[in-house]
Amino acid sequence: MIIYTLPKGTYSEIAAKKFLNYIDGNYKIDYCNSIYDVFEKVANNSLGVVPIENSIEGSVSLTQDLLLQFKDIKILGELALDIHHNLIGYDKNKIKTVISHPQALAQCRNYIKKHGWEVKAVESTAKAVRIVAESGDETLGAIGSKESAEYYNLKILDENIEDYKNNKTRFILIGKYVKFKNIPEKYKVSIVFELKEDKPGALYHILKEFAERNINLTRIESRPSKKRLGTYIFYIDFENNKENLDEILKSLEKYTTFIILLGRYPVFE
Ligand SMILES: O=C(O)C(=O)C[C@]1(C(=O)O)C=C[C@@H](O)C=C1
Q: Between helices 245-253 and 202-212, what is the axis angle to 10°?
């Protein structure tokens, strides 16, 4: 059985390896070029690992959108990794352009600005490192993991170049079904919905249902509905250990045009 993720040396690969410690079954990692490709590959018996949120730059909006688009793929688990970016290449003084994934470029925005480099975005940090390695071009630098520098035999020119300490990214395990070896205590639920009416207090009614049940929300976020400017859908994550999930979802139905359960899943350390 296969678990799909981003290329060798990406932070997503590191997260996938960590998930494998918790999963029951014999899975092999296979690599995709982009988050979109991971969603396309995940089928009946396979799984995927993709990033969903970063502590500096916020949501990975592509993952949010694809969770809605691929309706039969659910979130099956979550874990967070410390992310420490490195400047990778040949000679720091010769660099003119830095290449990386947009999330990584954004997490090092101040560092890049300070050096006055141009930036170029690609599908993953490991692809950036590969481009620098294959080109042999000393004017290029990549931002990526220590593992990717080792894999492509390039030098680490600077370490911990993220703009803020405690940089963390949350990764999700996606698919249809998985069995874990040991299930942790902590469970979360992710939902997405559209409010029925655009009127004062519309979102308040939703939040009230959670407040009255003493349920802790861990994230609330709006994304464009993509139908009209100024219309939104909402993503909410909440803790769910003992409370009756069906009853909670039922209580929200009357305020929404649709509500989709993206997953009820364990949170791993
Ligand atoms: O390109 C990678 O290494 C990834 O795993 C993607 C990704 C992301 O999209 O957030 C993962 C973690 C970091 O936040 C930067 C990039």
A: 160
User: Which residues line ligand 1 at a C-beta cut-off of 6 Å?
Assistant: 6, 10-12, 51, 54, 60, 83, 101, 103-104, 124-126, 169
**Assembly ipTM:** 0.92
Ligand 1 closest atom vs CA 107: 14
Q: What is the pLDDT of residues 86-115, one digit of tens each?
A: 999 999 999 999 999 999 999 999 999 999
Query: 48: which strand partners?
Result: 4, 174
145 and 15 both lie in a single domain: no
Catalytic residue among 169, 193, 210, 268: 169
For residues 220 and 248, state if they share a domain.
Answer: yes
**Residue 228 falls inside a structural domain:** yes
Q: Give the domain extent around 246.
A: 187-268
How would DSSP label each residue in 7-56?
A: PTTSHHHHHHHHHHTTB-S--EEEE-SSHHHHHHH--SS-EEEEEEEETT
